[in-house]
TrEMBL record:
Coiled coil: none annotated. It comes from the Bacteria. The keyword Iron-sulfur applies. InterPro entries: 4Fe4S_Fe-S-bd (IPR017896), 4Fe4S_Fe_S_CS (IPR017900), Cyt_c_oxidase_cbb3_FixG (IPR014116), Electron_Trans/Redox (IPR051684), FixG_C (IPR032879), Ig-like_fold (IPR013783). Signal peptide: none annotated. Keywords: 4Fe-4S, Electron transport, Iron, Iron-sulfur, Membrane, Metal-binding, Transmembrane, Transmembrane helix, Transport. The chain crosses the membrane at residues 63-79, 108-128, 180-197, 203-225, 355-374. Residues 278-306 form the 4Fe-4S ferredoxin-type domain. This is Cytochrome c oxidase accessory protein CcoG.
């Protein structure tokens, strides 16, 4: 009996110890908040973005205007009588004002892309996803489409009520006007984008005179529908599920990265209260649980839940919360641009290892890009041999090789070039030795080289063709090696 009592007692003690290790959980009702038993905001619900004003929204709007103006104006600019920026895929050349890039300049394009990537990494490490909130085309076009919605359908609450109504004349007209505006703006966007790859002036005229080719019509339709779908319908879905930047940004963040954050220490616990009531007496923080920060968020998140990859750092919740704090006579900054270290009252390290590393890489990449541009020779030479007969004997008893020289003028001006060959003594040049090549074009020149067989020391001799620009003070010259063959 004693053994059984002891075993029972030890079993009860072990159960008590196990129970004591569990953390007690209890439901706490936030003061002033109604518990409906279900989420107020579901990720799958349509987001009706509420309009908000404030410093950061004015800054974002101005930056959006600048970005869109630059995007829309650049294809119309002219330089030296031609379109200043044109990525002509059919001609395989990219024109950037005074610089023309060809497939031979892929290394230069690679340096440009690498520099842009590291610049994005540097900015993200320092200021978080400000690119997404202020300059990303998806964000810019989404806010433009929301502006059309506000002008045609009204505020966020009016749009929500309109969508719940059954179809009537008023709803049909408003919806038709909105989608017509979206589609027209999408077409203008598609035309502007296509203008970077096709001459803009002729494209604009041909489009509105219905004189464009079937292929170009398909391109415009594709990009117009893509703009209409992304900015009009998908919106935050692109940011949340399609953009890879949102996924790998966390690798660049650290505890000193400036992001939009909620000061939970100051704001909790949340709850409604009168403007004249003392929150401390009620046991409340500064957050009145108005949910404006959620209603103005273009991705529909609640910033009070902490840092989330969906946040695009647009600052809309900052302006909304600051407006509420002003009305409540509380200090601003409950939601603000800050760092994790600052929220925990720790020292903020503005200059840190990761930022220095990205900065050094930026310096290296920019230096390589500048060196590539400075050392770039705007001239290229390709040598094509006659494949039908490597060598032949002409009427003078000399050995003759036939070549086709392709001279590519990569500058923005017409130039005259002088050609020569070296590597064998007493060579005879048959064909023109000077050629004028128009700006950003290539010309071919068929020539032949003949040599007395007594000057040839073997079956194959290395030779070098040289092309030199003669109508300029600067030395522009390229050389290309080839082979001269003797008859067996």
């Amino acid at each position: 009996m004693r053994a059984n009592d002891q075993s029972s007692s030890s079993s009860n003690k072990s159960k008590d110890n196990a129970v004591s290790q569990h953390i007690p959980v209890k439901n706490i009702k936030i003061h002033g908040q109604k518990n409906t038993g279900k989420d107020r905001y579901k990720p799958g619900d349509q987001i009706y973005v509420r309009k908000v004003s404030g410093f950061f929204q004015k800054l974002r709007q101005r930056m959006n205007i600048i970005f869109f103006a630059v995007f829309a104006i650049i294809p119309w600019l002219q330089y030296n009588g031609q379109q200043a920026v044109l990525f002509d895929i059919t001609e395989q050349r990219f024109t950037l004002w005074g610089l023309t890039l060809w497939p031979q300049d892929l290394t230069l394009l690679a340096w440009i892309f690498i520099f842009s990537a590291f610049l994005l990494f540097f900015v993200t490490t320092f200021l978080g996803r400000v690119w997404c909130g202020y300059m990303c085309p998806q964000t810019v076009w989404t806010f433009i489409f929301i502006w059309f919605e506000e002008k045609i359908e009204g505020t966020a609450n009016q749009r929500r009520k309109l969508d719940k109504q059954k179809m009537n004349a008023n709803k049909f007209i408003r919806k038709a006007l909105k989608h017509s505006a979206w589609l027209f703006f999408s077409l203008l966007t598609a035309m502007t984008f296509a203008g970077y790859f096709s001459p803009m002036q002729s494209l604009f005229i041909d489009t509105f005179t219905f004189n464009i080719s079937l292929g170009m019509a398909g391109v415009l339709a594709f990009f117009a529908l893509a703009t209409y779908g992304n900015a009009g319908w998908m919106r935050e879905t692109v940011c949340l599920h399609m953009c890879p930047y949102a996924r790998f940004q966390s690798a660049m963040f650290d505890k000193d990265t400036v992001t939009v954050s909620y000061d939970a220490e100051r704001g909790e616990g949340r709850g409604a209260r009168g403007r004249k009531e003392d929150p401390k007496a009620l046991g409340l923080g500064d957050c009145i649980d108005c949910n404006l920060c959620v209603e103005v968020c273009p991705t529909g998140i609640d910033i009070r839940n902490g840092l989330q990859y969906e946040c695009i750092n647009c600052g809309a919740c900052v302006d909304a919360c600051n407006g509420v704090m002003d009305k409540m006579n509380y200090a601003r900054g409950l939601i603000r641009y800050t760092t994790e270290h600052e929220l925990k009252h720790k020292k903020v390290h503005v200059v840190r290892g990761k930022l220095i590393g990205y900065g050094l890489l930026l310096v290296i990449m920019s230096s390589m890009l500048i060196l590539e541009v400075v050392n770039r020779v705007p001239l290229s030479l390709d040598i094509i041999r006659d494949r039908t007969e490597l060598a032949k004997e002409n009427f003078n008893g000399e050995i003759e090789n036939v070549f086709t020289l392709k001279i590519l003028n990569m500058s923005q001006t017409d130039n005259t070039y002088k050609l020569s060959v070296s590597g064998i003594e007493n060579t005879q040049w048959h064909g023109a030795q000077e050629i004028t090549v128009k700006a950003a074009t290539a010309s071919t020149l068929p020539i032949s080289i003949s040599v007395d067989p007594y000057d040839l020391k073997g079956y194959m001799t290395d030779i070098t063709f040289t092309v030199e620009q003669i109508n300029t003070d600067s030395e522009v010259k390229v050389a290309q090696e080839s082979r001269f063959f003797n008859k067996r």
